[in-house]
Amino acid sequence: NADQAMYAAKAAGRSKLHFFTAGMQTLSQKRSRLINALREAIRQHQFQLYYQPVIDLESMTVVKAEALIRWNHPDEGLMFPHQFIQAAEQGGIIQELGDWIFREALQQVKQWRKQLNPQIQICINASPSHFEDSAQSPAHDRWIAIARESGLNNAELSIEITESLLMESSADTQQKLVQLRDANIQIGLDDFGTSFSSLAHLRRMDIDYLKIDRTFVRNLHGDSDDLVLCNAIIVMAHTLGIKVIAEGIETAEQHTLMQQANCDYGQGFFYASAMTARQFEQWHQKFSEQPLLLPN
Ligand code: C2E
Ligand code: MG
Ligand code: MG
Ligand code: MG
């Protein structure tokens, strides 16, 4: 009867609700376990920077290395940023982690400039939370101090920010970026083209380079719409005095098309994936000795 039906429905609803809550708890428990593990990981030196080269497409030389963080987890093995960066942001660990990355990368670029490649620049990825207005000790202040202490010269280091940061950026954020540039730190715009109002913000903010997002590079071939788009981005950026990196170059064809399109730099598995510092040095040696073999 109707009562029984209602009772059954209520019971089902309750158990669903119960099930849902239990699921949520497990998720937030997992999250807080992860956050604690991250805190411990800093103390235990479980983080490691990997480096992926950026190639000048005209001279075919290595001009930059992007630092990409990895976590050598004692049980899980090598962990990638998408598995922990968000938790680090939510747990407030991203500040400490960001400072560690900054120091580590700075030390590495100084060594490489002496011993490997006098021109090389290191690129670091920043999180939007590094630029939050509410921060008591703003990241950019600490980074500028660290850079000053280590006697940073010109163009040794750049910080990559995302379009969304620039889009939501207050006058305050823009001021921070200006201060970083005044301290000889370049600013790059990552994943360009994935957010909406890119163009207006490019004009408003001084940046040194932008990275065409790899979703545009992925489908590049001779007559694709994406090639037209990439060409337009490159011409526009150059008009504004901004350099361009094509990210996610995986094939010789993509490489050649970006070279023909006058794109300044290329990055992607076609040249090399992210490597440990030692592997990067060995790869760099080989790459400098023998030019890239291109089919045609
Ligand atoms: P991103 O800055 O856009 O970095 C490029 C990502 O694409 C890297 O993944 C890189 O390994 C990958 N990649 C490079 N070439 C290719 C290619 O040819 N094909 C494909 N399919 N992928 C390619 P990764 O290292 O997993 O980093 C992912 C994202 O995590 C980065 O995107 C960046 O936003 C963030 N991230 C990485 N390291 C850090 C860090 O130290 N701090 C912060 N805040 N974020 C970081
Ligand atoms: Mg990046
Ligand atoms: Mg990117
Ligand atoms: Mg990306």
From TrEMBL:
Keywords per UniProt: Cell membrane, Membrane, Transmembrane, Transmembrane helix
State the compartments where it is located: Cell membrane
* Biological processes per GO annotation: signal transduction
Q: Its GO CC terms? A: plasma membrane
Q: Which residues form the EAL domain?
A: 31-288
Q: What is its main location?
A: membrane
Kindly list the GO molecular function terms attached to this UniProt entry: catalytic activity
Q: What is this protein called?
A: PAS domain S-box-containing protein/diguanylate cyclase (GGDEF) domain-containing protein
Native source species: Amphritea atlantica
Q: What range of the parent protein does this fragment cover?
A: 763 to 1058 of 1058
